[in-house]
Amino acid sequence: MLSSIGCGYHVAGKSDALPPTVRSIAVPAFTSRTPTYRIETRLTEAVVREFNTRTRYRVTSNPEDADAVLRATVTSAQVAPLTYDSRTGQASTALVTVAVKVTLTARDGKVLFENQNYIFREQYQITRDPSSFFEEEGPALDRLSRDFARTLVSNLLEAF
Fold first, then answer.
1. What residues pair up with 26 in beta bridges, in sequence order?
2. pLDDT per residue over 86-116, tens digit each?
């Protein structure tokens, strides 16, 4: 039993790889280099929500009020057909792929975390029946945003 003490195991989400001087994090609105409508807003909101629900950090949008600043840029967002209907030849499912560049910088300018190429994908159904049409790309982007936020916050907390 004594040999297991100090073995490096810990409960996920309880470790903190950020310096103890970081008590507040600014998450200004992310930027986008893509024409995808509001993708940066969805990602920003999901990250702020994840920080607020999973961490003890105070989150603000103003970099002047924080010990560290999290900046992100959506570098690409693409939708590609994934499967086709054999009868009509039209796409029946699509895959949305989003790439994001993220940097967390301390107040003194030191880079605390950086990932230049987060890539997230989400699949969704394409409805071809006009009477029951429901646009599924928006909900797919919401799911993708939540996955991105969970992964990013976990990476920051666990230093992966």
1. 60, 69
2. 888 888 888 999 999 999 999 999 999 999 9
Within 8 A by CB and 6+ apart from 78, the residues are 96, 97, 98
| Residue found under tokens 């073995």 | 7
Domains identified in the chain and CATH numbers: 15-158 (3.30.160.150)
In this structure, the strands spanning 68-84 and 91-106 are antiparallel
Give the whole-angstrom CA distance, residue 141 versus residue 29: 17
Give the residue among 74, 16, 21, 12 at the shortest CA–CA distance from 43.
74
Strand partners for 55: none
User: pTM of the predicted model, to two decimals?
Assistant: 0.82
In sequence order, what DSSP letters do the residues of the chain get, joined into one string?
-GGGTTSS---TT----S-TT--EEE-PPPEESS-STTHHHHHHHHHHHHHHHH-S-EEES-GGG-SEEEEEEEEEEEEEEEEE-TTT--EEEEEEEEEEEEEEEETTS-EEEEEEEEEEEEEEE----GGG----HHHHHHHHHHHHHHHHHHHHHHT-
Beta bridge partners, 153, equal none
